[in-house]
Amino acid sequence: MLHFTGTLLCVTATFIRCTSAMSGMMRAVIFEAGGPENLAIGSVPIPQLREKEVLLKVYATAINRADTLQRKGVYPPPQGESDILGLEAVGVVDKLGAGCGSSWKVGDRVMALLPGGGNAEYVASREELLMPIPKNMKFTQAAAVPEVWLTAFQLLFTVGKVKKTDTVLIHAGGSGVGTAAVQLCRQFGARALVVAGSTEKINFAKSLGAEEGFNYKEAAFEPKVLKHTEGKGVNLILDCVGGSFFDQNINSIAAEGTWVIYGLMGGSTINTGDHLAKILRKRITIVGSTLRARSVQYKESLVADFTQRALPHFSSGEFRPIIDTVMTLDSIKEAHALMESNKTTGKIVLQVQEESPKEEL
After folding, report:
1. What is the DSSP annotation of 182-205?
2. DSSP calls for 48-69
3. Is residue 294 left, alpha or beta, with left meaning phi > 0 and alpha meaning psi from -120 to 50?
4. What is the mean predicted confidence (pLDDT) over 114-133?
5. How far, in Å, are 20, 118, 209 from residue 92 at the CA level?
6. Residue 275: pLDDT band with limits 50, 70, 90
7. Helix axis angle, 176-188 relative to 146-153, nearest 10°?
8. Where are the alpha helices (DSSP H) in the chain?
9. Is the terminal CB of the chain with fewer CB neighbours within 10 Å at N or C?
């Protein structure tokens, strides 16, 4: 992790911008472990490219739950990867590293799935993990795609093996992953049910294609899920909550259902009770899933599959990235505080620099 003295954290924005203009330096988010107040913008070296990496001039990036966990000091980046926050970035190819093929050229508008480093003016990305920005999509719109849409695609198709006849229960239905998962279900023929914390989030999910939604703050969702499915339960659960919803999930899932756990917002401990017996009786498959620490080969396959099967639907207008707020990179403290308020619907995007008319293709 990058460590800076309190004096450096309090330098003025003018000084930072001047420093970043120096050869080989860039503006980037820096932090010390703790709350949003420990975030700032500092001057750090532009990444040196490794084999098969591409340097991107970043125009927009975004905030994810993983960023807030890393800021707190509980979710470090994979070994050897950037300590800078940011699991996605969009921009223009600035330079090709040694060993790169012919897939990309300088000036291409691209989206990048990253293990870290996206909250900065430049970032290094493996060439295999780049995707073209869909036609007529602005950088700030594209920044809401890579991490959450690839996560949702992975949970549904790669891990969950969803089928057209399946009913899918999606927790955090108003989140970036949740709103992406709803649209993917709609497009590929599965029935989507969502759990969220407000009527507004549920109604929005319905506008995207969710069949029904349940407000967990008002009442238990389990009986409503069972009533809606005529007692059968759901075939697939996408669960980013974990412990606090475990009892309701195990009762909501159908026989031979698949339960994908990809987050622990509700804690990591459970009271087992007779859960093991229910898992046996229902023949439930429970799978843990992450994306950040996966191998380059796994991510390359995922990106290729998503690019072929899902990306064209953005150009056609069938899919759209859902954005709650666009803020500047300098508003990083406010962005993290907003993320942790749980009041957002869709993504928080950070604009790193303005798009010129030439770049708004």
Report:
1. HHHHHHHT-EEEEEESSHHHHHHH
2. PP-TTEEEEEEEEEEE-HHHHH
3. beta
4. 98
5. 18, 13, 33
6. confident
7. 50
8. 6-9, 13-20, 65-72, 139-142, 146-153, 176-188, 199-208, 222-228, 246-252, 275-282, 296-309, 312-316, 332-340
9. C
Per-residue pLDDT of 164-210, as tens digits, reads 999 999 999 999 999 999 999 999 999 999 999 999 999 999 999 99
Give 182's contacts (C-beta < 8 A, 6+ positions apart). Answer: 170, 173, 192, 194, 205, 208, 209, 210
Residue 272 CB contacts under 8 Å (≥ 6 apart), including other chains: none
* Contact in structure between 352 and 90 (CB atoms under 8 Å): no
* Helix (H) / strand (E) containing 256: strand 253-261
Specify which residues 57 forms β-bridges with.
Answer: 92, 122
- Amino acid 75 reads Y
Nearest to residue 352, comparing CAs of 20, 68, 107? Answer: 20
Model confidence pLDDT, tens digit, residues 73-96: 999 999 999 999 999 999 999 999
Its pTM stands at 0.90
Tell me the average pLDDT of the chain: 92
Residue 306: pLDDT above 90?
yes
In one-letter notation, the amino acid at residue 161 is K
